[in-house]
Q: What sequence folds into this?
């Protein structure tokens, strides 16, 4: 799991935020914001788009907080909002056209790769690079299935496609990840020297 | 090095990447700023048809009014000199409404962050036409014009003031957008 579901938000804080208490809203933003942005960034890749979708998701959360019944953790409810928005973006014809215009002759990895900081471990850098090599839909499917714990049925429903679509996308994405994460001949030679 | 790359090991590595600490792209004040801007943009989007309609109306009035003005001058009958026509109740109501709009217009800031040439020209033109109508109405009152004619001129003036208010309102919303 991305950790969004496990973030504890006190009920009274949610209640205050629902009534328009700015301090409570700020506290919720600080608590869940990083996990929401990380999830969106994984699903859509591009940072600028992720920022837009993050803003949209957080605004939707505060606007619709009155509808939140508290039956599930706030993070689970918020995750659903974020995932729905990301998949709407990935499914839009505009997005497909934009990908074509922006990355026509360019390397999509540069945009899809999250920033690497000195604290980022080497293995995470490898994983990020391998994820960035996937198609946006493939990356979303593999992340939802392997990390967020969605079933094929749920993914199919979110994409408005069949279960076999989800399974085939996952199989292709895993094959590509396997290839991307496998130790390279050249790398081994370098480390041995 | 990972040699056993089955689905489970890939999932494990993906989950390890997911648990890496992350940050929001911007802090709470910046989020609030964007939220307000977004709300304002939506308000502008909602008012866009009204603003466009107001601009079109203003353009039509600005174009047509000089002709109407001239036609009315020719059509006005000669009245008895030095008799002031009485002001009707409906005319007073129209004047009160127009005064309220003018009060609102007077309270608007005069220096906008962004001045659009087209809007500025439309505003100036509307203000000129209102001033011309004011002069015309004063002349008509002094020369004892028929109340119906004065009421028609008053309505025309009220429409112009209303158009001016709509154009100014659209301009105010536009200039408030960063």
A:
């Amino acid at each position: 799991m991305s950790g969004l579901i496990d973030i504890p938000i006190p009920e009274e804080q949610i209640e205050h935020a629902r009534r328009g208490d700015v301090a409570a809203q700020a506290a919720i933003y600080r608590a869940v914001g990083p996990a929401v942005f990380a999830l969106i960034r994984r699903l859509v890749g591009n940072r600028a788009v992720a920022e837009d979708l993050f803003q949209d998701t957080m605004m939707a959360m505060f606007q619709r907080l009155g509808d939140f019944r508290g039956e599930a953790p706030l993070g689970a409810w918020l995750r659903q909002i974020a995932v729905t928005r990301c998949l709407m973006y990935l499914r839009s014809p505009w997005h497909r056209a934009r990908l074509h215009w922006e990355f026509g002759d360019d390397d999509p990895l540069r945009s899809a790769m999250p920033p690497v900081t000195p604290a980022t471990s080497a293995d995470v850098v490898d994983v990020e690079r391998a994820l960035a090599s996937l198609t946006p839909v493939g990356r979303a499917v593999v992340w939802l299935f392997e990390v967020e714990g969605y079933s094929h049925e749920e993914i199919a429903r979110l994409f408005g496609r069949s279960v076999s679509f989800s399974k085939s996308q996952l199989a292709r994405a895993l094959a590509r990840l396997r290839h991307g994460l496998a130790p390279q001949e050249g790398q081994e030679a370098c480390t041995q020297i | 090095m990972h040699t056993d790359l089955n689905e489970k090991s890939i999932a494990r590595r993906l989950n390890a990447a997911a648990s890496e600490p992350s940050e929001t792209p911007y802090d709470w004040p910046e989020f609030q700023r964007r939220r307000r801007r977004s709300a304002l943009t939506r308000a502008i989007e909602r008012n866009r048809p009204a603003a466009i309609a107001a601009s079109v109306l203003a353009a039509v009035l600005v174009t047509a009014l000089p002709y109407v003005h001239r036609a009315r001058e020719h059509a006005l009958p000669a009245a008895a000199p030095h008799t002031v026509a009485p002001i009707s109740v409906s005319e007073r109501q129209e004047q009160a409404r127009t005064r309220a709009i003018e009060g609102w217009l007077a309270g608007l800031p005069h220096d906008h962050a962004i001045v659009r040439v087209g809007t500025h020209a439309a505003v100036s033109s509307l203000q000129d036409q209102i001033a011309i109508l004011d002069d015309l109405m004063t002349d008509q009152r002094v020369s004892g014009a028929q109340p119906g004619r004065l009421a028609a001129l008053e309505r025309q003036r009220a429409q112009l003031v209303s158009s001016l208010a709509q154009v100014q309102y659209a301009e105010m919303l536009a200039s408030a957008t960063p």
User: Anything to note?
Assistant: The radius of gyration of chain A is 18 Å.
